[in-house]
Amino acid sequence: MIIQGRAWVLGDNVDTDQIVAGRYLSLTDPDELAEHCLEETRPEFRRTVQPGDIVVAGKNLGCGSSREHAVIALKATGISCLVAHSFARIFFRNAVNLGLPALTSPEAVAAIRDGDHVQIDLGSGELTNLTTSFRGDVPPLPQSIREIIAVGGLTAYVRRRLKEGRP
Questions:
Q1: What average pLDDT does this structure show over 30-59?
Q2: CATH number for the 2-163 domain, one of 3.90.1150.10, 1.10.8.60, 2.40.30.10, 3.20.19.10?
Q3: pTM of the prediction?
Q4: Which stretches of the chain are assigned E, i.e. beta strand?
Q5: Taking the mean position of all CA atoms in its chain, how far away is CA 167?
Q6: Across all residues in the chain, what is the average pLDDT?
């Protein structure tokens, strides 16, 4: 699977409250959550994000509370992938469970600027900054995680396996 989009660069320690503020936790509709995604951190984000765009961040992306709202909101805006120096553990797992690729690459993060166009091959782990011609590697996602992402998340993956008679 190849992903291509414009980079939205965030800094270190972007917590889940910065992605979706706690006052919106009563919302359950992904589109409503998306309306408030990064509204205080990047006010222009919701108006200008395009389907396929990629969030690039520094260390510890998704720290803070372990709620899924942040990943749901990012995915509902059309974000196709997350690339970070590192992720908070539960945020990373929420991303996988909800079908949003999350890749770690300090080298790639250092080589991507806000607005650059980036292409990522999830199978091979090749990342290309199409704006600057930088090429680097991200650890390729294991086949099992690529399958979860391909069907839209862990729930859909488990349902499909059960329907096929596989545990």
A1: 96
A2: 3.20.19.10
A3: 0.93
A4: 2-9, 54-57, 81-84, 102-104, 117-121, 126-129, 134-137
A5: 28
A6: 95
